[in-house]
Amino acid sequence: MTARTEMPRAEEEAIQRALEGQAAYMPDVRADVGPAEEDWTTVQDFFSSEAATGEFLAFEQSLNKGTDLKTAGALMMTDYGYILAAAAVPLFAGFGIIPELSPASLALSFYVTEELHDGKMHRVRRAHVRFLEPVFWQGQLDDAAAGERFRTEIEQHFHPVIDTIHAQTRLSRAALWRLAADAIASRFLDSGRRFGTVEAAKAAAMRILKVAGSPLANRELHYFDLMVLDKHRKEFSYTFRQRGGCCRFYLVEGGEYCPTCVLEAPADRDEKLRLAMRKHLGVA
Questions:
Q1: For a tag site, which of 31, 53, 117, 270 has the least CB within 10 Å?
Q2: Any residues with CB less than 8 A from the CB of 124 and at least 6 apart, and which?
Q3: Are 273 and 226 in contact (CB under 8 A)?
Q4: C-alpha distance across the termini of the chain, in Å
Q5: What is the mean pLDDT of the chain?
Q6: Sign of the alpha-carbon dihedral angle for 161, 163, 165, 171
Q7: Which among 38, 122, 39 has a CA at the least distance from the CA of 78?
Q8: What is the DSSP string of 161-197?
């Protein structure tokens, strides 16, 4: 595993292919390399600004009636975890590229958009991500050293993010770390599907997120498979990520448990997910 700021042309082209692959896969969170421009802010500066993070929390509270400050913090962590995971995980899961993720080395360009979820359009906050310096490591998904490097980069990135959200909402750091781990695990699974590396991506995610003593580690987070019969009575299996954290959405007015909520009893969870699978397959 090697890092380069000045690299041979072949490695530079490999990184460019990875960035292009990430952008095509996640157009709502495009990652690139270059200097910060107008309307871009570093992660360090953003999470050092009480006004900027306060506005993010206010946005989360504006989406649903009854959203208290801790729930806004959980939803903010969920949305930001989505952004960071979308920028970093596909590079590693699809191309064996690990970017430097220190908060001073990443810039963000935030925007608000609408996304379809459960048949309804919902406002969400997203951001494009820019690596300010071309510092990358190369390593394979099954390489223990590469996994450790990725975990180190993820942890150093999330520490100030979580400290800030905790300070402003009093939601526990442990709860916030669980949400960060959920975002990383989800993106590893989906990236594996996108780039044809599902089993390697799942195994890498569990090695990275289950290290004893890591703030990312918790017992509840894991992957599991469910099976139903399709229209032709053939077995159809699908892999899900079981959350380790809770976004507290069930506490807002009209809210409910997420499909893989850590608070849901496994039997109830599986019944609902199998029903959704049958619906997807057009099976009564």
A1: 117
A2: 79, 112, 113, 114, 115
A3: yes
A4: 50
A5: 95
A6: positive
A7: 122
A8: HHHHHHHHH---HHHHHHHHHHHHHHHHHHHHHHHT-
